[in-house]
Design a protein that fits this description.
It is a single chain. By secondary structure, this protein is mainly alpha-helical. The chain folds into two domains: 52 residues, no CATH class; 39 residues, no CATH class. It is built from five helices and two strands; from the N terminus they run βααβααα. Strands 1-2 form a two-stranded antiparallel ribbon. The two termini are 14 Å apart.
Length: 98
């Protein structure tokens, strides 16, 4: 079983990492590598991975709630505000030593 990567420093990201961390994070990593070499200061940081977000959804039971709300929305009901509320209200599960 391979270890799940949850966080990647911007300095290690390039545009080839869009699937893993999303476009904005990959762009920040690319800017950091290209612009720093050109003498421009770019703030360092890190990106959480798409896999980390999927784990957050699953461990908080959010994936099922989001799917249910989206299904209801297809029937004409709202849902975006409730999904946002669920995401913000959910607690992170901490795994010691990970």
């Amino acid at each position: 079983m391979s270890e799940v990567v949850r966080v990647i420093p911007f300095e290690r990201l390039r545009m080839t990492d869009v699937e893993e961390v999303g476009g904005k994070n990959a762009s920040l990593g690319e800017m950091l590598s290209q612009l720093t070499a050109a003498g421009l200061r770019v703030p360092d940081g890190f990106a959480t991975t798409a896999e980390a977000f999927r784990l957050f959804l699953d461990e908080g039971g959010l994936r099922q709630r989001i799917q249910a709300r989206l299904f209801l929305r297809l029937g004409g009901g709202g849902g975006g505000g409730r999904i946002r509320h669920d995401l913000v209200a959910c607690c992170l599960v901490v795994h010691p030593g990970v």
